[in-house]
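User: Can you fold this complex?
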Amino acid sequence: MTFKGQDITKLPPHLISQLGIGYVSESLNLFPAMSIYENLLVGAHTVKDKAKVKSQMDLVFELFPRLLERRDQLAGTMSGGERKMLAIGRGMMPAPTLMLVDEPSLGLAPIPTLATFDALKQLSARGTTILLVEQNVNTTLRIVDRAYVLEQGAVALEGTGEQLLHDSHVQEAYLGV
Amino acid sequence: MTAATNLRQVPLLRRYLTFTWITLGLAAVILVLSAFNSPSLLVNTLVSGGMWAMMAGGLALVFGVMNIPNFAHGELFMLGSLTASLVYGPIRELTLSSKSDVLKWLGPFPGILVACAVGFVAGIILEGSVFRQLRKRSRESWVMNTFLLTAGVSVIMQNTDMLVFGNFPRGISRYWDFKPINILGVTLAVDRLMVFVIAMVVIAAFALFLQKTRTGRAMRAVSMDETGAQMAGISLNGVYRLTLGLSSALAALAGASLLWLLPATPTVGQAPLLVAWYVVILAGLGNVQGAIIGGFLVAMIQQFTAYYVSLDWVDVVPTAFIILVLLFKPSGLFGSEVKGVWEQ
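Assistant: Here's the predicted assembly.
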């Protein structure tokens, strides 16, 4: 497996993240006894430049004003949607070139799900490549640029989100139309 | 995970009317009242409490960050007191013969500082040669395996010390050769005062480090979620090395500072190790903040027992107290569902 021409298969996890790959896991892996502010600071662990940490944090707060409201609240006491926002925000802190996001809609009610997708869309519009894994087909296909359908470990279909949304196989198997 | 409550919205009264705060409040009241009766109780509590807080803080840090119940912590105390006695011995001759007060003040510090450094290095070696090797092979029943490993390391270190340096106490009567100072009607040996000052400075620095610095934050992050820490680009091995180094340096510092009270022998670390475990179990495993407060609480119970009952009971009463606390709050005084070395 290579990233920007470098083999990363055997790299330890912390070095992979230092190469500019951000990862937002399914279970979020937040630090529950730390405040939102501290969670974000830990996210910027590899960033030495204080001004850059500040500007990234401003960006996170701009994208998720809710996090700014609760800046000093402990991560462990937040709702599911807020936690998801914080996880994405923490992933944004080192300004990664590629961000892997694992099932952001998992366990979320419809409205927070839409808000999360909206934030991801804005993030990608600002130039971060996002690789999203989702089973929420309907919403996902409406926001993505390109989509791949995996069936039993192999790519079964690929195309733009719009194309797949109108594909008869996708409609039948995943959208129940 | 606890329900989504904002801590700041809980009414002040209810926040502090908990079992933990009632216990602490009672302890504080008793301590202050007894100080009128016998000021030495207060002084002794603060002096030995500082030391126990340093020992237990290191023990809690290693358990909190690495999940290791370190039964070799007492041997790092022993290493500190041995190093200090070896370094201070020759220096003592010099400072005693000199008339300069400045030299007499500074004399003990090289020994204490070298002991601290030796402890730090020993911790890093311990992590690299023992725990890292186990981690590479298997993380199954990690707590049990590391407990057995540290118990083994403890035996090896005690016997190596006995083999190389012999089984006789290397003590000193005092570090600072000055007249006792009189504070609020209590005559206080300079050594006691200095040990208290050292403990306070080190504990404050340690707390600030954990709370405010980038590395301290990384340590707390690892204690709460290792995967999350790695995702943020934190090197687990780096944090582990530093954790064990710091904890060992604290134990060695305690050993060196108490050389005038506990002469260096191969088994000198056993009693402090036990006390540190009392404290850590009382406070809640892996909570450094709790361990620091708990250190003073256990010291207070010991001093009161020694003063009002008898010196033979100083191990019995704290243990009974811990059993009582665990009956009402099984996770310890400061225990919580959220794992982390420093609660907010």
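The two ends of chain A are 37 Å apart (CA to CA). Chain A has a mean pLDDT of 90.
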